[in-house]
Amino acid sequence: MASIPPQTGRAITVETVGAYTIASRSWDLRLSWNEHQAALQLRDPFSDEDEESLRWALEAYPLNEPFKKSRALNVQQKVEQYAQSIFEQLKDAINVVLPSIIPLSDLLTLLITADADGESLHRIHWECLEHLEHTRILIRRTIRTLQQPLPSPSAHVMRRKTRLLLFTARRVTANDEDVSYTLVSRVVHGIISSHPDSSNTTLHLVRPGTWHALEMALKEAVDSESEVIVHFDCHGSVSNGLLVIFQPVLKIHTD
User: Fold this and answer.
1) Residue of 131, 41, 40 whose CA lies nearest to 81
2) Which among 98, 89, 88 has a CA at the least distance from the CA of 41?
3) What share of the chain is helix, strand, coil (3-state, %, to 5)?
4) Helix, strand or coil for residue 53?
C-alpha cells in the first residue's frame, strides 16, 4: 500500500467566514498560510440531481446496475469537471497566500476546517482534487465539534439501570441452516455499546437455554433499581398475545 506523503510547509487552511448561502449554493471562505490570507466565494458545482447521480454511481451501479456503463461514464466526466471547477475557484486565492517562489506544481495540502452539519463545507467532494493531473493536492479534513455540556449528577441518580437478558434456545441439527447465536449476541452487544448511555446497561447471556435457567436469571436480575429486558433468540411465533417458543409447545403470555 502506498504511503501518504507527509504534509509540507505548504498546508493552507480553508475555513468558512459566514453561513452557507442556499440560493447560490455557496460559502464565503478564508484561505490562510502563515500570516498570509485571502478571501473568496466558493460555489458548489453540483446540483441536487448531480449529487443523486454520484450516489447512484458509487452505490447502485457496481452492485445492482453494472451494465449501465454509459451513465456511469457520464457521472465520471461530471466529477472531473467538478474537480476542475473547484480548483479554478481556489486558484487565485492560493496564489495570493503562497509565496511566488513556490511553484503550484509542488505538493499542496488543503486543511478543510468546518462544522459537521448538513450545510457544512465538508459536503464538498474535496478528495476529487487529489486526482487532478496538473497539480498535486492532498486533502486533510478537520471537523469542529461543539462541546456538549455534561449532564447534572442528579440525572444519573434518577436514571434506572437496564439489564438485558439474552436468552437463546433453538432445536437445530448439524444439517440445519441457521444463524449462529454468537452473531445475534454480537449485534445486540453492538447496539448497546453504541448507545450514549451504554454504561447504565448490562448484557447477560442466559445459559443453558432452558426454561429453568431463564427463571433463575430473572430472579437474580430483578431489583428495585433496575429494569429487565429479555431478548428471545428462539424459533417461534407470536399469536393472540402468546409467545410460542418451544417444542413441545410452551406458551408465554407476552404481557
Assistant:
1) 131
2) 89
3) 35, 30, 35
4) helix
Name the region of 123 (left: φ>0; alpha: ψ -120 to 50; beta: rest): alpha
Q: Which tens digit of pLDDT belongs to each residue from 224-239?
A: 777 888 878 777 666 6
- Spell out the domain ranges in the chain: 11-144, 158-253
DSSP 150: P
pLDDT (tens place) for every residue of the chain, 255 residues total: 333 444 445 889 999 998 889 999 999 999 999 889 999 999 999 999 999 999 999 989 988 888 899 999 999 999 999 999 999 999 999 989 987 655 656 788 999 998 877 678 999 999 999 999 888 899 999 887 655 555 555 444 446 778 888 877 766 666 666 666 666 667 777 777 776 666 777 877 787 777 788 888 888 877 777 788 887 877 766 666 666 655 544 444 444
> In sequence order, which residues have a C-beta less than 8 Å from that of residue 254 and are 6 or more positions away?
238, 241, 242, 243
CA distance 167 to 211: 10
Q: How many CB atoms lie within 10 A of CB 243?
A: 16
Q: Which residue's C-alpha cell is 433496575?
A: 226
Pick the CATH number of 11-144 from 3.30.70, 3.30.200, 3.30.420, 3.40.50: 3.30.420
- Work out the angle between the directed axes of helices 48-55 and 69-97 (0-180°, nearest 10): 120
